Each structure stands twice: as structure tokens, then as C-alpha cells.
């Protein structure tokens, strides 16, 4: 029988079946980004910890340079699968797969890099923020400063108003949708540029509550019926070139409870709040949208997020 944390994890996506993790191996944008960032951050002879190891592939990337990798996984099925797969791959013996709760585990020695990919659009469903904050506190109590480098280093989040088609072969169904990042669709009309609403820097303390109030200037007459949430994980910062290694997640489109007719020049006021790691419905239920006619000043937007 599942305990309370296990029951919540099944609901929020922490206790995923083996086949779901297999599917993630084929996500090229995720794999390419993490491989490049891990190769960048893990130096020869480093000690590495991965929290929530899944198939063990990210730990294996680290093991190509690291002297030792501690790969922590809670799902017993995934522990067995990671051990099986790592045994088939060169330097897989450098990875120790540990069956433990990442909220409680600490390595036996200080580590140089921590990898944690419990990521979801808008930092919902998965426990990335809570887990990292919990880990930092326990790590400092045991080993003291400095903290290890985190992969990802940060997360940038933005929101955008849309007119979204919800016609499925004639069946009208305004439901939550996930869209491939950067892919144009005639079913989606962007009514304003995305606006930045949160930046999470894992090297700094982070609050669990995410709250935003902001506004958009509508660019075209339409029916506003959805908000699109855009999330970019900054996997590594390259200081010498002032650039980053990124992973742009699939977009998440949330339908509004009541569509709203808008015209070019209208100001759209939006507010919401949610706890990082909470269910998607907690954000959806907190959305508040209000229209004001004809704004004299353009709202501040972030166009680079979707680039």
C-alpha cells in the first residue's frame, strides 16, 4: 500500500512507469541539451549526484568524465532498469544506482555537480523546486559551503494570450493542450508577445509560491480563450560567450473558463498564483483575466523566450 508521499507522487507524476522513461530517451531536444550541459559542467574526476535518475542516461553522460556518480531513484522498477541499462554501456560502472527517496538522501561525500530533471511546464506537477531547496538546506548542514553546480542552473517562465481552436473533427473540447515548442499552427493565434513572469535560479533561495500580476496590449481583434505557458530551462550558463545551453519545453495551453472578445489596443490584465509542484488545476483555478479598452502605453513583454 502506498504511503502519503507515494500517493501524491503517483498523482503528480513522480512515480512514472518504465515505458514513459523509455519514451523520454527519444526526446532529442531534451537529450541533446542535457548532454551538452553535463559535458560542459562535469570535469575530469568530478563527483556527481543525480536526483531522480530514471533510466540513468543523464548519470551516464556524467560518467564519461566523472570519477563517481551517485544516481538516486525512488521507483524500484526504474532502479532495476537503470542498473540493467548502465551495465550495457561504457563507464556505466562509474554510476552507483541507489534506491532511495531523493528528499532524504545525501551522498557520503561532497559533490561537484547535481543533476535533477524533475521538470514540467510552469514548474507544475513535478517536485523540482521543492526537492532542490530541500537538498540545499540538508547539504549545507552536512558539508557546508559551497553548494555544487546545478544542472539545470535556472528556469525562465512566461505567459501569452491566445485564441486557440478547440475543434477536434467537429467535436468542441476546450481542454489543456501541449504544443511542440516553436512550431507554427493555424489553430493558434498569438494575441500578444509572451510576458516574463518568473525566473528561478537554483543557486539562490527560491520561494515555493509563484505569483504574477501583469498586463498585455492586445495586437489584433479576436476571441481570447486561452493562455499559453512557456518554460525554458537554462541547463548551463557559458560565461565566456555570454550564452546558455537551453531546453525549451513543450508549450502548455490552458483554456479560459469564459472566452473574452478583445480588440487591437485593448489591455488585458492577468493574474495567477500557484505552488511549484502543484497540480495543473491549481493554476487553472487561480487564473483571473480582465479586459480594459485602448491602452495608451504598451505592456512590457519578453519575445526571446519563444525563440
TrEMBL record:
<dbReference type="Pfam" id="PF13649">
    <property type="entry name" value="Methyltransf_25"/>
</dbReference>
<keyword id="KW-0808">Transferase</keyword>
<dbReference type="InterPro" id="IPR025799">
    <property type="entry name" value="Arg_MeTrfase"/>
</dbReference>
<keyword id="KW-0489">Methyltransferase</keyword>
<dbReference type="GO" id="GO:0008168">
    <property type="term" value="F:methyltransferase activity"/>
</dbReference>
<feature type="domain" description="Methyltransferase">
    <location>
        <begin position="48"/>
        <end position="135"/>
    </location>
</feature>
<dbReference type="GO" id="GO:0032259">
    <property type="term" value="P:methylation"/>
</dbReference>
<dbReference type="InterPro" id="IPR041698">
    <property type="entry name" value="Methyltransf_25"/>
</dbReference>
<dbReference type="InterPro" id="IPR029063">
    <property type="entry name" value="SAM-dependent_MTases_sf"/>
</dbReference>
<protein>
    <submittedName>
        <fullName>Methyltransferase domain-containing protein</fullName>
    </submittedName>
</protein>
Amino acid at each position: 500500500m502506498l504511503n502519503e508521499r507515494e500517493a501524491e507522487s503517483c498523482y503528480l507524476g513522480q512515480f512514472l512507469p518504465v515505458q514513459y522513461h523509455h519514451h523520454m530517451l527519444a526526446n532529442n531536444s531534451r537529450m541533446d541539451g542535457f548532454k551538452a550541459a553535463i559535458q560542459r559542467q562535469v570535469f575530469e574526476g568530478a563527483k556527481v549526484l543525480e536526483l531522480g535518475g530514471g533510466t540513468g542516461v543523464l548519470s551516464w553522460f556524467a560518467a564519461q568524465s566523472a570519477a563517481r556518480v551517485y544516481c538516486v531513484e525512488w521507483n524500484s522498477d526504474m532502479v532495476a532498469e537503470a542498473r540493467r541499462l548502465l551495465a550495457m554501456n561504457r563507464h556505466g560502472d562509474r554510476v552507483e544506482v541507489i534506491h532511495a527517496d531523493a528528499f532524504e538522501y545525501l551522498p557520503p561525500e561532497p559533490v561537484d555537480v547535481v543533476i535533477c530533471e524533475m521538470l514540467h511546464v510552469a514548474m507544475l506537477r513535478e517536485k523540482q523546486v521543492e526537492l532542490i531547496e530541500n537538498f540545499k538546506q540538508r547539504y549545507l548542514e552536512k558539508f557546508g559551503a559551497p553548494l555544487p553546480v546545478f544542472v539545470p542552473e535556472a528556469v525562465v517562465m512566461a505567459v501569452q494570450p491566445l485564441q486557440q481552436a478547440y475543434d477536434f473533427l467537429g467535436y468542441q473540447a476546450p481542454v489543456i493542450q501541449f504544443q511542440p515548442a516553436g512550431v507554427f499552427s493555424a489553430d493558434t493565434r498569438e494575441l500578444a508577445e509572451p510576458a516574463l513572469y518568473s525566473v528561478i535560479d537554483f543557486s539562490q533561495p527560491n520561494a515555493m509560491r509563484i505569483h504574477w500580476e501583469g498586463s498585455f496590449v492586445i495586437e489584433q481583434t479576436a476571441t481570447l480563450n486561452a493562455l499559453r505557458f512557456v518554460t525554458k530551462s537554462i541547463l548551463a550558463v557559458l560565461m565566456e560567450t555570454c550564452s546558455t545551453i537551453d531546453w525549451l519545453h513543450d508549450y502548455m495551453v490552458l483554456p479560459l473558463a469564459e472566452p473574452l472578445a478583445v480588440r487591437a489596443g485593448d489591455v488585458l490584465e492577468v493574474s495567477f498564483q500557484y505552488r511549484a509542484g502543484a497540480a495543473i488545476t491549481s493554476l487553472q483555478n487561480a487564473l483571473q483575466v480582465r479586459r480594459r479598452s485602448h491602452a495608451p502605453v504598451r505592456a512590457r513583454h519578453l519575445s526571446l523566450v519563444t525563440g
